[in-house]
Specification:
- By secondary structure, this protein is of the alpha/beta class.
- The strands form four sheets. A seven-stranded parallel β-sheet has the order 7-11-6-1-4-5-12, sandwiched between helices.
Length: 319
């Protein structure tokens, strides 16, 4: 079996999911290779090759920003040449756009947002959640075309260093870079020091913080433990915080080692995006709040007293 993983990078810095995808591919066995596209792939390709994969590096100034049409056409050519049985991408904004387009172009089956991969009777089986994470089911593909998968970040440990990797510098047909849309710049929203989908710790705020100016309680705690900042849809819709922080059915899905929910009631739309967190700590004055049903630890009380006290303790403990 031949497996192709698609690396994800921003500003010529690899996302952790790139290494997690390699680890997932290794768990299936077979021949593993990876595609990497960017304006400067030298350092990134070396880092990926150190994981034991064969890296096909496509370098061009026009690949500085992600453009799913151009990326898909380039990778489609690689797929036609290398003929992988399985293609693994990331279940992120970039990966979902790219892999879905590739699956359509190649006529292959697809399973999105996978939380586990295994090999059963020589067939790749993908495990994925449904109905808000209340049900998990398996997906297989009998198509002759590649089986396309998007892997949820943080569900697989990163691949360790391994010998046998190599970098192949690819040439690019300039015509493939011609697209209907052109990305001219990338502007990052302020306030996000740590990537939400890749963070080991997430501190999230909900309607219980009462006002926009109180979101600083969430940001201060997050900064004290090096966490990413999250939010419920209610306070995003209220304009208290940017959409990039939204977690849930219409936001991002996170899977950190520790999730601290402050003033989050626990509507099912929010729980969908964070219930797979390893440890969940909930702070809410309502002892009957739904979030306590999935919390590992619950603190019932006034968040305006508890959150600052915890932040102070974190700062003292972590220096």
């Amino acid at each position: 079996m031949k497996i192709l993983t698609i690396a994800e990078q921003k500003n010529n810095v690899l996302s952790n999911i790139s290494f997690e995808s390699i680890a997932a591919a290794k768990s299936l066995g077979g021949d593993i290779c990876s595609a990497l596209l960017g304006s400067d792939t030298s350092g990134m390709s070396t880092a990926m090759a150190a994981k034991g994969t064969k890296v096909f590096a496509f370098t061009h100034p026009d690949l500085k920003y992600f453009q799913d049409e151009a990326h898909a056409k380039i990778i489609k050519g690689l797929i036609d040449r290398e003929k992988p049985d399985v293609v693994i991408g990331s279940a992120t904004f970039y990966g979902k756009a790219l892999i879905a387009r590739l699956a359509a172009m190649c006529g292959g089956g697809m399973a999105s947002d996978c939380t586990g991969l295994s090999l059963e009777s020589d067939m790749v089986t993908a495990l994925r959640p449904s109905y808000g994470g209340n049900v998990f089911f398996t997906v297989q593909s009998n198509d002759a075309a590649p089986f396309f998968l998007t892997l949820r970040p943080k569900v697989v440990a990163e691949a360790g260093d391994e010998s046998g990797g190599e970098v192949v510098e690819e040439t690019i047909d300039e015509s493939l870079l011609s697209c209907k849309a052109k990305v001219t710049d990338h502007v990052s929203e302020s306030g996000g020091k740590v990537s939400l989908t890749e963070a080991d710790i997430v501190v999230a705020g909900g309607r219980g913080i009462r006002a926009a100016e109180n979101f600083k309680l969430i940001e201060e705690m997050a900064e004290s433990v090096g966490a990413a900042v999250g939010a419920s849809r209610a306070i995003v819709d209220a304009g208290w915080v940017q959409y990039s922080h939204q977690i849930g059915q219409t936001g991002k899905t996170v899977n950190p080692k520790l999730y601290i929910a402050i003033g989050v009631s626990g509507a099912i739309q929010h729980l969908v995006g964070m219930r797979s967190s390893k440890i969940i700590v909930a702070i809410n004055r309502d002892k009957d709040a739904p979030v306590f049903n999935i919390a590992t630890y619950g603190i019932v009380g006034d968040l305006f007293e508890i959150a600052p006290a915890l932040t102070k303790k974190f700062k003292e403990a972590l220096g």
